[in-house]
Write a structure and sequence with these properties.
Elements lengths: L5 H4 L10 H15 L9 H19 L1 H11 L12 H20 L2 H30 L5 H37 L1
Helix pairs in contact: 2-3, 3-4, 4-7, 5-6, 5-7, 6-7
Length: about 180
């Protein structure tokens, strides 16, 4: 991820709760300002770089999980692919994957739909919890309690990453079904 502060780049306050209409407005406003076609010929490559960074910022901030990861990066926290994970989460994800695989093998579309609905609801609930944890973190001054709140955010982001991968498996199933049709 870039070392830029995407919030500053788009002129937005640095917080998890983003006004999507304001994000869109700021993005379009700044896009017009840095568009390479508007720049003199000798400045076009620089303008193209600015436009790319602006696009990257917009894509990250408009989606919850990338926005959360960017906020954590701004806090100096990077979540790697091999982060320690609570054993309960791993067991839960393994069980969900097994249920999904069994439903796929059985061709049980009704069960697949129920599992997918449950995954969407779980993801929505986790995102609600993440928003609450970020709100608490953003109101917390430096100190040990803030570090605990930051860790709670990290743990929630890790859970959401696992859920996102699980949800991707449903898209893979949908793609396979479309290819077979």
């Amino acid at each position: 991820m870039s070392s830029s502060d995407y919030f500053a780049l788009l002129g937005l306050p640095r917080r998890f709760a983003v006004d999507r209409a304001e994000l869109e407005r700021r993005y379009l406003e700044r896009s017009r300002a840095v568009h390479p076609d508007r720049a003199p010929a000798e400045e076009r490559s620089g303008a193209a770089g600015q436009a790319m960074e602006l696009n990257q910022a917009y894509r990250a901030l408009k989606r919850d999980l990338p926005r959360a990861e960017h906020l954590l990066a701004l806090e100096g926290v990077t979540i790697g692919d091999n982060q320690p994970v609570a054993p309960e989460l791993l067991a839960e994800m393994l069980e969900l994957r097994e249920q999904l695989d069994e439903a796929k093998q059985a061709g049980d579309r009704a069960l697949l739909d129920r599992l997918e609905r449950a995954a969407r609801e779980r993801q929505r609930a986790e995102l609600g919890e993440l928003a609450a944890e970020f709100a608490a973190l953003e109101s917390q001054a430096a100190g040990p309690e803030r570090a605990d709140r930051l860790q709670a955010v990290v743990d929630r982001v890790i859970r959401l990453r696992y859920l996102a991968r699980y949800r991707d498996a449903f898209e893979d199933e949908d793609d396979a079904q479309e290819g077979a049709a």
